[in-house]
Amino acid sequence: MVIDKKTQIEIDRLKAEIINEKSHKNYPFNPNYIDDFKGYSIGMSVEEIDSFLRYRASGKFVNSPEEFQKISGISDAKLNEIAPYFKFPEWQGVKAVKATTKKRVEHQFDRRAKLLDINSATADDLKTIYGIGETLSNRIIKFRDALGGFLVDDQLYDVYGLEKEVVESALKKFRVIQKPTINTIDLNTAKANEFAAIIYINKDLAQKIIDYRTEVGGFSSLDELSEILDFPSDKIARIKLYLSL
Question: What is the Cα–Cα distance from 103 to 92, expressed in whole angstroms?
Fold first, then answer.
């Protein structure tokens, strides 16, 4: 940037005022109202001040130290030095929080929109994940059919032979978008064969549920399943998805 003689004289005058101050202290200030003098007093260059003033001349405001740096072009070191003195009006702080929250929600929505539904994925879709071939893709679909559809994402971990790392990769692309409609089984009235129809419950466990229910006179909560001897505690959360009282 070329500075004419008149501008240079004004710059020198402003610098002299700063140098001649016997005790210069920084006080909280709203950076949106920085002028030439204030800009020089906090160590901004002519280019940085001009860049920021041009932005403000358009009627726009900054709402955070990061926005101020982006518009003015000041260095990280300078931002760290002066940002503690920035004081934004309360409405600007609220506006900034709302804007950040909106962006986060929009990002999550966009990410969700790009995911594929694990309940409608084909074998070919699944094979796009590294580590899932012909055998595992067909096994996932068979497991899904046996469940009547995945109810939660984590049920993918229950597919035999599917490594944890592979599941984690798959869940970056596939999620439960459309949950299937299922008829839950009443824990206090169902028969053993009904319990055994749940993929996580074998005949022995189904009978233990019946025996415990008879002994205590009925279940008062689904969590009471953990009181049954040898009940698979690692699967209780899954099993509860298919039961009701």
Answer: 16
